[in-house]
């Protein structure tokens, strides 16, 4: 049953919380050092700020961005103040429980299981990340490009090509079943190094547990030195689609980034989620680097892909993030072009059948053309522009 609140009650709820804060103020609060043992900074007393009413309101606005036409978002938005107050009360009383995911498969370069959390849970994910993300963001290396502000695919491609012009060889790395393999106990240990707030860790545990079984059918058990039979029951896996999953995936492989930079002393390294490239002048040294990385990844219970992880000269082109990068130019991979053309022609048919508007077709196509413009694709882009239908 949905209950309504008056503006006066809403204001009262805000006063009960820690008060209104701007985005900049929240970052400063998250960065406040509550304890420092001289080696590792830890953060306490975060939970009251995470669950304050104004933070939930800001999280709700961020979660709905670009999704206001979705049914769940519309239902929440219809009586947002009441929904937010209910969420606020549950979080304050520590009775909040995540809901069930909606799962579906998406096929682009490969078939992936996508899991969508209920909208109210996505609000909680944003509220949590508002405070814990800045804590870990400052520990990330420059050349980690996934799901970070002012980074992204195109900047990762630019950086990889920059290194391809400087070094003759590349080690390309790929991790087997990355999201299904992320070990909850290890991830929790990494997060707890900095977060010394039991209530925040409890909320993190709830979110982790809610997605623990999603990849069970897809995960192929990997065994590591010292494992016993109980290793098969270890909670693992992050749902692809959560804001928290994207963030925690970066936190998890930041361990690899630090190893590459601090232990291997490699200056030319680029990572985007679980795809990474590492450049060097000596082919044999890169093979040795691969062996050391594979050994280190075992500490995270991860395995490098035996076929996709290899060393070769950069002059033949580096397949990376849907492109083939050469020192002098780059091209879209053929399978990506074919996949887009199939989708484009299906959209054209849908438009001609009256199933979608011309604006939707044009927006989707122009966005892909802008993406393709980051490589040598002039002829392809010209051909596509000619094929976009015009309003009759």
Briefly summarize what is shown:
By secondary structure, this protein is α+β, with helices and mostly antiparallel strands. 50% of the residues lie in helices and 11% in strands.
Account of the 3D structure:
The protein is an alpha+beta fold. Helices cover 50% and strands 11% of the residues. It contains 16 helices and eleven strands. The protein has a four-stranded antiparallel β-sheet, sandwiched between helices. A three-stranded antiparallel β-sheet has the order 9-10-11. The chain has a two-stranded antiparallel sheet with strand order 1-2. The longest helix is centred in the middle third of the chain and has 21 residues. The N terminus is likely disordered.
Number of strands: 11
Low-confidence stretches: 1-21, 29-39
Determine the fraction of residues in helical runs and give it as a percent range: 40-55%
Spell out the helices and strands N to C.
Answer: HHEEHHHHEEHHEHHHHEEHEEEEHHH
Q: What's the gyration radius in Å?
A: 23 Å
Q: How much strand content do the residues show?
A: 5-15%
Q: Give the CA-based shape.
A: globular
Number of helices: 16
State the end-to-end distance. 48 Å
Task: Give the helix/strand class.
Answer: alpha+beta
> What kind of sheet is the major sheet?
4 strands, antiparallel
Strand order within the widest beta sheet = 6-7-5-8
Summary keywords:
392 residues; alpha+beta; four-stranded antiparallel β-sheet; three-stranded antiparallel β-sheet; globular; disordered N terminus
